[in-house]
Specification:
Chain lengths: 514, 514
């Protein structure tokens, strides 16, 4: 394997050199997104947006299958909604985009300004979440136990003014789905909270091939107002955690502040128990940092906008039409096949660019299978097949396999499925290998983290609250660490709390985070 | 048919009594949308949003099939982009939502205010369209003729501050798609302009069952900066026109202001020729005013979120399980069928409400077929089938057909297709009957329009420009009339201009409009 050091990779920065720089390079070289000129807002380019469309399509089917209805709520939220929600208005300070005027006019000096005469009586906030407006709608829609459960979801853009942004991971504007549900009682609401969490876990580990740990967030990391917050946490290749989805059980607190009440079967008024849950374009950042390598993204086939790219090697001569015809036939044969319950997505790339440029462009984008066809392949009835997950041979050369066409076609579905499984298995092995359960001193363990990819540490703890919890959070913060979640599937406890020495009640993961 | 006057319709307002009031009632009683509390912004409820999802799904497939890539561009546009675009900044005055601050804080007196310290150096405008940011992106993405055509589309929310709003038709925030394409020359750009127009025409007349006239807008109705603007115009049941989609050929003007240049095959720099085209949630308003009747919406099957509703008549006794089982089997049989190339969409409505309430709720929503099943239907192997497009018999009673189950199932696809065709044929006949070509005096013809549904008038004209055109526009405006478009498929001209008496060069439609 030593030869691999000689490989001239497609990106200029490797993961070990500079993980953050590598991440940006995958995004720009893979045509996933770019800066828009408006700080913190990105342009999501076709390949990046195609991945989001795949995520939306597959997740939306799960959401609908659970009986949740999609709706659309307004972009703007009156400022007064936040006053109602804020516990202490005077201490309130939140980063949000505030609309104060409704007209632009010339100022008479060649510049445009917000027309002072168009100042809004009540400023409008660009939604950071639709919690409050959906709560207000639910209070109108829910009257009787017959109206419950009420389960709605929205796919939308939201804005949280961020000072330090990073594409897909933390942007001022991002795309997400937010599910909001109301139920007759705690049991039914908790069931929905856990259904959504399990939907996210299965989605991450299925279509995204991204192993995660599903668990409950500690009290200090709960969504404000939630009785319990659950998350899926994924391990990036630098060992940091990415919170990739959350599901909250809100008890009756949210229903009380929003007025979501119903008449029960006995005729008395009750507050509904509510939940909310969401994932965002952040998932794309997670996919990049889970599967990317030094040649760019490796896109899991289930969410790849195109799974197989066919590149005709054209020479501007008489052979070209024969090559194109061969490629078209190959594409037709492949389109008749299905993987993961959907027809294969196959692109014949006829752009007027050199074939080798196209190949590297698709390598950087992470198309799962890249097939090149030249006149010689046509005469031999073959195709040059490159699997993106196994790009190089041990000697450092491209692992292109010259395969008889019929053999490639008959094996294409298995290859697609194998790439999906391989990406998951690789990431799963890495995550499992980097969760340590024997660490006794966090400072020492994480000291070398800049270079060493220290991963996560799982400890047993007594789940302290109040001041005792605050103290732990502060200690961790000094080490740039946070508690991620208490895994639902952790082993039973058998010892003392890592922090307090009291009898432990559960296990919890600790790590650095995005 | 006299008995029909005795029908007690599901809505409180009829179309003839008060068309505008009827429209609002269809929307509220059909659970399509409601006011949000933020002026001009609506909440789109599940049934309304489900229709939009159907529109998106079918249209998006057409857009992708044309080789157009979906992207996502930022919600916020810097104010300076509008300064660049404005011809004369000093006369500029446009209704737009302007973000001026990025933080809310308590003012110390129990209120929240935009933090004065968070004032943005450059205000941001909430996109009224993404024209300018997409132009800026295209100028980065286009270098060579090899990069053309560059065709992108975005599904997004946009905001145009409106003083007078009407749900779906004119709202401050609405949902739309905007296609933007760049081409090497006029010919290619015009081809794309016409492809998009034809896509819209076929979409309106196909899935929406809404007949339209495709044609070119007169000069005074062109999109600012466009060389030519084309539209599809639909006739509402009050005879007014609804511009339901537009496609613009922008020449090189937009490329010049955005800097979209490419190196041609000979090595010299050229400006690209660009197009843009869009449709919005306004289409839903068009569907309501084309197909609605005094019992609510009649939703064309192709865009109905559910095409067949099965309502079990439950009595809270031992028969219930038998009825439910029969309904589930019926649903399974129907789900195995396809219409318009997609599996039937069938809902078994098990909500705990009276069956007759459910029936009327689905009538008002416009579900194409409503099936009720009671214990007696089960024992007779039948189902009570109601077609939404033919609700009443001549005697004014509901036209429920007690049909053997197997017969209903085997005829379901044909019934779905027939409803789609019937809705189109009805609307088409109405539009055709209400385009008059013999009108000599517009004032007289449109005088009785408040009651008489005067429809449109087609005239021949000389296509004057400048002052001569202005004069015609003013004359029409005094009669509350506008020119809609010059139909692409109009008959040849054979006379003088209706306005100027000069030889006519084309025909043009005149009418009242939304
Ligand atoms: Zn939420
Ligand atoms: Zn546009």
């Amino acid at each position: 394997m030593a030869d691999k050091n000689l490989i001239k990779h497609a990106l200029n920065v490797t993961r070990t050199q500079n993980f953050a720089g590598w991440y940006q390079e995958v995004i720009s070289e893979g045509d996933l997104a770019e800066e828009s000129g408006v700080r913190g807002c990105m342009v999501i380019r076709p390949w990046g947006y195609g991945i989001w469309e795949r995520i939306q399509k597959l997740m939306d089917a799960e959401i609908k299958a659970a009986g949740v209805d999609n709706c659309y709520f307004p972009l703007f939220i009156p400022l007064s909604f936040f006053e109602k929600e804020a516990d202490h208005v005077d201490g309130f300070a939140k980063e949000m985009a505030v609309v104060t005027h409704h007209r632009l006019v010339g100022d008479g000096k060649g510049k445009l300004i917000p027309d002072p005469e168009s100042k809004l009586e009540e400023p409008l906030v660009v939604r950071p979440t639709s919690e409050t407006v959906i709560g207000a709608a639910m209070s109108r829609w829910v009257q009787s136990w017959r109206d419950l459960p009420l389960m709605v979801n929205q796919w939308a853009n939201v804005v949280r003014w961020e000072m330090r942004t990073r594409m897909f991971l933390r942007t001022s504007e991002f795309l997400w789905q937010e599910g909001h549900t109301a139920h007759v009682d705690r049991e039914d609401a908790l069931k929905e909270t856990m259904r959504a969490l399990e939907m996210y876990r299965a989605f991450a580990e299925g279509p995204l091939a991204m192993p995660v740990v599903a668990g409950e967030k500690p009290e200090n990391e709960r969504f404000p107002g939630a009785v319990a917050t659950y998350s899926i946490e994924a391990m990036m290749q630098d060992g940091k955690a990415l919170q990739a989805g959350t599901s909250h059980y809100l008890g009756t607190g949210f229903a009380e502040s929003s007025g979501i009440r119903y008449q029960d079967k006995e005729g008395s008024q009750q507050y509904a128990h509510t939940t909310s849950w969401g994932v965002s374009t952040r998932l794309i950042g997670g996919v990049i940092m889970t599967h990317g390598d030094d040649d760019g993204l490796r896109c899991p086939p289930q969410i790849a906008p195109h799974q197989i790219i066919i590149i005709p090697m054209l020479r501007d001569n008489d052979d070209d039409e024969v090559v194109l015809e061969y490629c078209r036939t190959l594409r037709t044969e492949l389109l008749a096949l299905s993987a993961f319950g959907e027809p294969l997505r196959v692109l014949l790339d006829t752009k007027a660019t050199k074939a080798s440029n196209k190949r590297w462009s698709w390598v950087k984008k992470g198309a799962p299978i890249i097939v090149e066809v030249g006149p010689r392949d046509v005469s031999e009835g073959k195709a040059a097949v490159l699997r993106r997950d196994r790009l190089y041979k041990d000697d450092g050369k491209l692992a292109t396999a010259f395969t008889p066409r019929a053999e490639f076609v008959s094996g294409a579905v298995a290859m697609i499925e194998d790439i999906q499984a391989t990406l998951y298995a690789e990431a799963k092995a890495r995550m499992d290998a980097n969760i340590r359960r024997d660490v006794t001193d966090l400072a020492t363990h994480f000291a070398g983290d800049e270079a060493g990819f220290a991963g996560w540490v799982e400890v047993q703890w007594a789940r302290p609250t109040g001041a005792a919890l605050d103290k732990i959070v502060e200690q961790l913060k000094a080490l740039k660490l946070t508690m991620r979640n208490s895994p639902l599937e952790a082993a039973a406890v058998d010892g003392a709390c890592f922090f307090t020495g009291e009898p432990a009640v559960e296990r919890i993961l600790i790590g650095r985070t995005y």
